[in-house]
Amino acid sequence: MRRKLRMGMVGGGEGAFIGAVHRMAANLDGQIDLVCGAFSHDPDCSLRSGQALYLPAERCYQSYQQMMQQEAALPEDVRMDFVVIVTPNHLHFPVAVEAIKYGFHVLSDKPATLNVEEVLELRSLIVDSGLLYGITQTYTGYPMVKEARARVQSGELGNIRKVVVEYTQGWLAAQQAEADNKQAAWRLDPKQAGISSCMADIGVHAFNLVEYISGLTAAALCADIGNVVAGRSMDDDGAVFLKFDQGARGTLLASQVAIGEENTLSIRLYGDKASLSWSHQDPNTLVIKYNDKPSLVLRTGGAVGSMANANTRLPAGHPEGYIEAFANLYRNFASQIQSRLLGETLSAQALDVPGIDEAVRGMVFIEQVVTAGNSETKWHVIPQH
Amino acid sequence: MRRKLRMGMVGGGEGAFIGAVHRMAANLDGQIDLVCGAFSHDPDCSLRSGQALYLPAERCYQSYQQMMQQEAALPEDVRMDFVVIVTPNHLHFPVAVEAIKYGFHVLSDKPATLNVEEVLELRSLIVDSGLLYGITQTYTGYPMVKEARARVQSGELGNIRKVVVEYTQGWLAAQQAEADNKQAAWRLDPKQAGISSCMADIGVHAFNLVEYISGLTAAALCADIGNVVAGRSMDDDGAVFLKFDQGARGTLLASQVAIGEENTLSIRLYGDKASLSWSHQDPNTLVIKYNDKPSLVLRTGGAVGSMANANTRLPAGHPEGYIEAFANLYRNFASQIQSRLLGETLSAQALDVPGIDEAVRGMVFIEQVVTAGNSETKWHVIPQH
Amino acid sequence: MRRKLRMGMVGGGEGAFIGAVHRMAANLDGQIDLVCGAFSHDPDCSLRSGQALYLPAERCYQSYQQMMQQEAALPEDVRMDFVVIVTPNHLHFPVAVEAIKYGFHVLSDKPATLNVEEVLELRSLIVDSGLLYGITQTYTGYPMVKEARARVQSGELGNIRKVVVEYTQGWLAAQQAEADNKQAAWRLDPKQAGISSCMADIGVHAFNLVEYISGLTAAALCADIGNVVAGRSMDDDGAVFLKFDQGARGTLLASQVAIGEENTLSIRLYGDKASLSWSHQDPNTLVIKYNDKPSLVLRTGGAVGSMANANTRLPAGHPEGYIEAFANLYRNFASQIQSRLLGETLSAQALDVPGIDEAVRGMVFIEQVVTAGNSETKWHVIPQH
Amino acid sequence: MRRKLRMGMVGGGEGAFIGAVHRMAANLDGQIDLVCGAFSHDPDCSLRSGQALYLPAERCYQSYQQMMQQEAALPEDVRMDFVVIVTPNHLHFPVAVEAIKYGFHVLSDKPATLNVEEVLELRSLIVDSGLLYGITQTYTGYPMVKEARARVQSGELGNIRKVVVEYTQGWLAAQQAEADNKQAAWRLDPKQAGISSCMADIGVHAFNLVEYISGLTAAALCADIGNVVAGRSMDDDGAVFLKFDQGARGTLLASQVAIGEENTLSIRLYGDKASLSWSHQDPNTLVIKYNDKPSLVLRTGGAVGSMANANTRLPAGHPEGYIEAFANLYRNFASQIQSRLLGETLSAQALDVPGIDEAVRGMVFIEQVVTAGNSETKWHVIPQH
Fold it and tell me: Touching check for C12 and chain D: CB below 8 Å?
């Protein structure tokens, strides 16, 4: 019989942003209990953070290493089932490695690692261990994104010719952003964030969304990236041309200095039969357009397919948002673990969680887009690992 | 020190709709545990439903009477803190009475009772017991609804002259709706729903929203209501003129047969200085308009006031929806209970939950709108109880 | 062979608003020449206005009476073919009578007269004279309004159950509006405007739009109208319940004090198979909604019917607006005149101009809505003349 | 004293598209008479077309050469004042040259010529002759585009950092488009259209709009263009990175195969203080966004600046569209001619018409974007002629 799953968290202590979002996503469906955490590199902060979450002191750990070790030593019906990693980027890889070492499944925030080399190593570890790995490319969790993917798969758009995707924000437009804001500071610090700010933080979401919905594989890119705000050592803005295996072309825009934009993620796919568009600003709507027929407006909870419906909680017209999309990743990843525990085959829905392959694609994209942005050569191949 | 609160649920068993929504809302912030329930009048169903929610069998009760009695007998650090009522309408009142009898706070779905007489009795019981009572007029939970109220309170709109509010749905447009759908069946059955379908189910939300945002008190109404689909004994559509104490006039539309509408709730207030509009279809946006200046677009998470921000969980541009709004009612009601437990004064935010006064207003509205709809007289006074 | 038609104008001199709109509408298609006018009751102003429009002095008349008389005396291939009336309301009737007396077709701004008695007399004169009469209920000129009507006629919506229509403006929200603005002054002066401001100026457009699109006939109404701004003797705001012959019910909102609204005209029709919505703020879009299928978005110039296409000038995506809609009335009315001149039968398109019957309906609506608004009785029959 | 201006047209005969649009734009304000034309290379078609426009046979010319010669020989108060050129692209240059030779002002559709060499020669002829030249980069005619430019000029956005512009259409998505459609056929025929289809037809509008609104000058570009539909020898889709003199970067998208798109032109500018966005699908709205304040929504006819108002004909809320924008170019160009005739200085408004300098920029853009699209080199300088 199913039981509630037990989650441990690394990162997400006081003042963090994404950790709280992960917890709400994990809570929503009442299928997962947070049972322990190493919430901060500062042991006091970790303890305070855990107690504010009603955890007993003995399961508020002083380090992620301690957490893995001590949880592994607990009885099977007490210890955590999986680890969620919500630290700044540079710790995603070492924490995942440690979790795998102690036999815990991993759900990681993105990007998976700091570079391609690490992510390929991580993939080997995952494959060898047989453990489950998920990465929170959150936007794939939206029902209408899943509907878009299903419509492309069913051939409704015909052959995809062109893709236009964008993720723009304005929050780093001001020079003092990094001084004023803890979230900004680490994202603009190469030691914590890696080689890229804008493309690693949000460009990679746009890239993932394109490959997820279209089913295409990007084969080459050309990039124009820039440090718009003076004094930054990493990209805060950029644009990319994409060429796909199957002949389609695309453009990808990402910016952290697009003043007035909130989290403006949108995508359009143009096939030779129809096109579709989806926007994060109106996430429960999917529009399909034709040249010679009225456009169709599909709505979450309405006349849509089974994968969209399986990821919907409310009747049409009651808006579902970012936390619900995030919770879909949690619910589907939890479903994978439950199937393991019960010895069941994974359903298509359970499998519909970005995993290590998407993690690899993301890191390859980030490395190549930075390389291309700094190059006078036009096209750069995107390696298939 | 704060502890997690313990919730018991009456109703919400297998196949129910709103019970699951209440549980997600209660779960979201990790501040409330569901510890027991009487999920169905059918004891087997109640047990199955509770076990699917990971409750121990001994706290899956056979009736709400049993639940109150046995929970009251549990040690103080085990028994539930409050009861949430998510049954069909006709049970809201008796369950609340029973809960009060045993000293439990009550959070009830709307409408509070089947008629004004009952709700006035309920108010007496609440007042006499000193217990806390909340009613889930959900839409007041949206951050931009709270911002709208704050803007009106601050005088930004001047004197309100006109209000236009609407809640339209299409799901009962077909004659077979009640045969096909358990949710439809009880709402169209006077024994379970009371004297009204459309006005009691959704019209009352529109009415509550007007009084919540505007701060005005409706003094009289004129109504045209109808049973559009043949064979129904209750209203499935209607429109109302409203007169307010302070001279403003309003119109309220509600329909369950507006084919193609999902849960289309919208409100506009026109003052003598400015107007505002909010729509449930785009709930994170609030528009303020003037005659001689550009319109302002306010956004959840953006440049808004403290009450809106206190009811927001994400940065601007990450859409928050219905569950988050619902969870704001839970969070604020939980805050009331926590304050009681800790002997603290209630904050403005904690107090910002619809309570017994709103419950009374809702029942008065429902009774008067049905009376007026069946009358050839134009205006009907709305009594102030 | 077709020739350009010759138009004479009464009203529309310096400082007028609607006269210039009529001229642009008449100019657009190059089928009509303005050849003369009595542009003002002030002969100097009439002359100045005419000369600014490149008219010879001898055809800038000192009064409409003089214009009718002298034009009638000109050779057939010189004199005007029809008169357009763009004065304040109180002159619509006498000018039309004078035009008919001299054998000129009439295109009149609305409302046709000051009361029902006059409009019935006007109808007799028209019928007896055999002359053509059009009334500029402008909004019926939009291609997507015509498409809406065609969709209803084809049965696509099934039986209409409910209609929601609204025309709101904010320009008279301030007390000083009538002092500051010539357009406001005459609309709020009963001597020039008649018994109603808001309902006669814009409510009547909403009423006409409902009957035009739905094909229904309103049979009774209940009204709440008010003089919101102190000191006014006429309505500046109101709401109406409508009952239609065929059992449908409707609501109509109109306001001149809805601060921040521009010319917000919108209409929704709910049938038992589908619903449709159209808004003047996005006039080239028509949405059709279902309960169990995706919504359809129809667009001017796109996949729409023949009547919409015949009233469209541009490819889809090049916005057409108010002047084009207005020009459709002119083009179709001109088509009627051309058919007379050439002895041809009128096409369906030529006939698609609001005429004397719509003029009568409008006056009946205005009278009854004011009567009902001032009455304590709920329902008032709308007479069928 | 002002008189009506006299216009001659080259091109625009039966079956043409843009000629009719030009005539409506010229008609709208009643300031211009079409007096003659060489409407087709087929003399019979030219005659039939002219007579359908109510022109006398003697001014329906057999060729543009004949028209220039014979009109020049007419008395000064009869002959045309200016020529409008609405032929396929390859004739724009020779017709303009001929008009200049005979001393007529020229208003030309875009692109001005087939290549940069020709347009530089044209510029010399214009400068030497002292004649007036306008080019119908239509979208600069929209009031809210003018407002956008004014807001940038006033410094409201601060320094522009990034520009995103797009013009997408779907009408050439199908392979048979060129066979079925006269408009498609010439645009995809290099002999008539020049070296580019997509970029010369619509990309150039996007480019012009960027430089018009931003006041920036594009200095270099990188392009990915393609012939998406098999068998075409010219681009039907493309994307461009732009670098501007002042450090801003931009992206430009254009496509004729974006199925379902109508004439989707949109632009966003991001400065270091604010951003703005405008879309042709909602042309009467301009949005200004900030990071720390509510967004502003500006509307045609509302609280906007003098240049926008001078190009607006209606009160706010009465939609103005493409023909009105086009007519603004005509009105302002006519104003230039009137000023010449009256010996007056040109007003800022009269000067606000795209002219020979914009024509040169357009041709340089078209040539460079095709060069860059066919090159493996990333960046290509845009010469400043």
Answer: no
Contact B297 D292 (CB under 8 A): no
φ and ψ of C361, to 5 deg: -55, -45
C381 and C220 in contact (C-beta within 8 Å)? yes
Question: D181 pLDDT exceeds 90?
Answer: no
- In chain D, the residue whose alpha carbon lies closest to the alpha carbon of A378 is D378
- Residue B311 contacts residue B335 (beta carbons within 8 Å): no
Global ipTM: 0.96
How far is residue C11's CA from residue C134's CA, in Å, rounded to a whole number?
17
- Got the DSSP string for D308-349? HHHT--S-TTS---HHHHHHHHHHHHHHHHHHHHHTPPPPHH
Instruction: Please provide the DSSP assignment of B166-203 as one string.
Output: EEE--TT-STTHHHH-HHHHHHT-HHHH-S-SHIIIII
For chain A, the chains sharing at least 3 beta-carbon pairs closer than 8 angstroms are: B, C, D
Q: Chains touching chain B at 3 or more Cβ pairs under 8 angstroms? A: A, C, D
Amino acid at D378: K
| Cβ-defined contact of D288 to B303 (cutoff 8 Å) | no
How confident is the prediction along chain C (385 residues), in pLDDT tens digits per residue? 789 999 999 999 998 889 999 999 999 999 999 999 999 999 999 999 999 999 999 999 999 999 999 999 999 999 999 999 999 999 999 999 999 999 999 999 999 999 999 999 999 999 999 999 999 999 999 999 999 999 999 999 999 999 999 999 999 999 877 777 878 888 888 888 889 999 999 999 999 999 999 999 999 999 999 999 988 989 999 999 999 998 999 999 999 999 999 999 999 999 999 999 999 999 999 999 999 999 999 999 999 999 999 999 999 999 999 999 999 999 999 999 999 999 999 899 999 999 999 999 999 999 999 999 999 999 999 999 9
**Cα–Cα distance between B285 and A115 in angstroms, integer?**
39
* Beta carbons of D303 and B294 less than 8 Å apart: yes
Backbone angles phi, psi at A271, to 5 degrees: -100, -175
Go through A75-96 and write b for each residue having 16 or more CB atoms within 10 A of its CB, e for each that does not. eeeebbbbbbbbbbbbbbbbbb
Asked if A303 and C297 come within 8 Å (Cβ–Cβ), the reply is no
CA distances from C91 to A69, C11, C87, C194, C358 (A): 93, 9, 6, 11, 18
Contacts of B159 (CB under 8 A, 6+ apart): B246, B247, B248, B271, B272
pLDDT digits (tens, 9 = 90+) for D29-46: 999 999 999 999 999 999
- Quote the crossing angle between the two packed helices C64-73 and C92-101, to the nearest 10°: 20
The CA angle C161-C167-C171, to the nearest 5 degrees, is 165
The SS3 call for residue C16 is coil
A303 with C288: Cβ contact below 8 A: no
Task: Pinpoint the alpha helices (H) of D59-171.
Answer: 64-73, 92-101, 116-129, 143-153
Nearest residue on chain D to C300, alpha-carbon basis: D262
To the question of pTM greater than 0.90 for the whole model, the response is: yes
Give the 3-state DSSP-derived string for A256-297, with helices as H, strands as E and coil as C.
CCCCCCCCEEEEEEEECCCEEEEECCCCCEEEEECCCCCEEE
- D276 to chain B: which residues are within 8 Å by CB? none
Cβ contact, residue pair A297, C302, below 8 Å: no
**Sequence-ordered list of residues with C-beta below 8 angstroms from that of B301, at least 6 positions apart, any chain:** A262, B143, B284, B309, B312, B314, B315, B316, B317, B318
* Nearest-CA distance C231 → chain B (Å): 15
Q: DSSP letter at A124?
A: H
Mutation test of the interface with chain B: which of D147, D284, D295, choosing the one with the most B Cβ atoms within 10 A?
Answer: D295
Neighbours of chain D (3+ CB pairs under 8 A): A, B, C
Amino acid at C103: G
Task: With CB atoms and an 8 Å threshold, state whether A259 touches D289.
Answer: yes
The 3 state secondary structure assigned to D220-256 is EEEEEEECCCCCCCCCCEEEEEEEECCCCEEEEEEEC
